[in-house]
Amino acid sequence: MSRSALFAFAAAAITTVSFAQAATPVRQAYLDRAPQDEVIYFVLPDRFANGDATNDRGGPAGDLVGDRLKTGFDPADKGFYHGGDIAGLTARLDYIQGLGATTIWLGPIFRNKVVQGPPGQESAGYHGYWITDFTDVDPHLGTRAELKTFVDAAHARGLKVYLDIVANHTADVIQYRDCPATGCDYRSKADYPFVRKGGPRGPAINDGFLGDAFLGDGRRTAENFARLTRPDFAYQPYVPKGEATVKAPAWLNDPIWYHNRGNSRFVGESSTYGDFSGLDDLATENPRVVQGFIDIYGQWIDDFGIDGYRIDTARHVNPEFWQAFVPAMLARARARGIPNFHIFGEVAETEPGMLARFTRVDGYPAVLDFAFQGAVADVVNGKTGTDVLAHLFAQDALYEGGAQAALQLPTFLGNHDMGRIGHFVRAAHPEASDAEIARRVVLAHAFLMFTRGAPVLYYGDEQGLVGTGGDKDARQDMFATRVDEYASARLVDGASAAGDHFKTDGALYKTISAMARLRAAEPALRGGRQVVRAAGDKPGLFAVSRMTPAGETLVAFNTGLTPITVQVEVDATSRTWRSAHGSCAAAVTAPGSYRVEIGPLDYMICVSEVGQ
Does the N terminus or the C terminus of the chain have fewer Cβ atoms within 10 A? Predict the structure, then answer.
């Protein structure tokens, strides 16, 4: 079978208007789209497209000169900058919109510490999470003017733009005199209280400090949060020579606004108060820090008309910070004329109850649905029965706002930290043919696009990029790479990964684009109430109905390797049907019972409308 034929089954029955026709803005109608109406394209700008080679080493002014440890640029090393930038993204908007994306989520674009790490283990801030200047664009990626051009160009096409932001930490600038070479173990509040130096019996340094004092309703305020006078309660922090003013806004340069307790163990108290792998952990319980970040990120909304924020390391910040920050951002966006500003946090947790906690306690409108990712990967790979998904969706009631709120949870199949869906499938089926791998990847995207949630496409998945794992191993270049490991890899369909990856006639690109068109054409697939109709404890049938006042849309999947013919319960009023994808019977077998036939690793979508 040819590579183009591998995906033909997935796109065969999907037809609608072209995205070029749909791209014409009508009175900025994109602003009225609800979060669940979006198809989000997540991209790391450094790895996407190089539109301006003069900024590869950190800016056209030549402010960064020397080797890669000075400039951060080494396109042959997967841990350094490769040259992608905002200008490149702007030049490729046709490609992104042609895929069917309606929103572009940019990895952090703020100025980063160029290189970090001990000698011999250095890496660059190409990913964007080592921020020093929260007010400016990293010069490797472009300028504020180029960002405005990009956002305006996207908006003119009806595309939204989300920024990836950080409030938990800054780059690793603050050091500790107590352990300069090996890194510092976490020191707890009980063993090293804020009001003493060196332990509970040490000399008083912050007498009268009330930082952990709460009002009766649990809120902290500036009035009951006295300012720390010294930051050396646990360790002796200092800022190395030459870095005293590296952070912006300027207040971020003072160690008094940080916890300075050593490296997080990622459990208990240290998860909130510890340095994330050495990164400077902000004292986000302090009202000065809260207001500072409200000012910082509110200004990006004011200046650029940003449409949403994905918030990094959300679980490592105290809930009171988010309880103040999230409403402030939503209000700032409304004042800017952005009524559907989408905020969602990164909480790397696969239990829906733990994810839901951040919507009920911390006040997040949504969180990235890691539980969905884990469940779909296991179901598509045949590791579990499809009842795992039924169990997952039954817990939508846990989110603040219940199942209706769960519609706006960003769902995804893989990302820049954990790895790509192609890698998960290939690792689970090392002996499978390329055709089977491809079919499982397509089926995973069908779950992503047609069950509840706002789907997130990880850049390059549409070209079949696979990778060998997470982190740097999943951050390939879309342009022709100079990293040997990236170039020598195989795509999902078995082809070489060498060369660039912007084909719009590839089978997987066309298949995902067709799915996006179908999702856009059928409102039930975006906002319909979801009812699980069938699931089992083995690979095979999974079916859901998406219900709206206009009727019922049935989506049925087969995760097994043999065909399925079965009766599925539907609403008793759904009598006649049309096919949106696959071969759908024109009528029910009996009121409330509908016959479905699905081939191996395939899916079907059938629509019954009121009045048919």
Answer: N
Determine the pLDDT at residue 218.
Answer: 53
Q: Where in the chain is the domain with CATH 3.20.20.80?
A: 3-168+287-521
CA-based angle 128:132:133, to the nearest 5? Answer: 95
Question: HSE on the CB side for 10, CA within 13 Å?
Answer: 32
Residues of the chain with CATH 2.60.40.1180: 527-609
pLDDT tens column, 427-441: 999 999 999 999 999
Cis peptide, bond prior to residue 249, ω within 30 of zero? yes
Total Cβ atoms within 10 A of residue 526 = 24
Q: Which two tokens stand for residue 498?
A: 């060498």
* Residue 485 annotated in active site: no
- Among 56, 280, 346, 477, the active-site one is 346
Report the candidate in 355, 349, 350, 333 with the shortest Cα–Cα distance to residue 409.
Answer: 355
Name the 3-class secondary structure at 299: helix
Q: Which stretches of the chain drop beneath a pLDDT of 70?
A: 1-27, 60-64, 211-224, 611-612
**What's residue 227's pLDDT?**
79
CATH topology of domain 3-168+287-521: TIM Barrel (3.20.20)
* DSSP-assigned beta bridge partners for residue 507: none
| pLDDT value for 181 | 72
User: Within 157-245, where are the H helices?
Assistant: none
Which of 56, 280, 285, 312 is labelled catalytic?
312
Q: Which neighbouring-strand residues pair with 593?
A: 569, 590
Q: What size, in residues, is the chain? A: 612
Is 2.60.40.1180 the CATH number for 527-609? Answer: yes
* Residue 263, strand partner residues: 185, 275
How far apart (Å, rounded) are the C-alpha atoms in residues 117 and 130?
12
312 is catalytic: yes
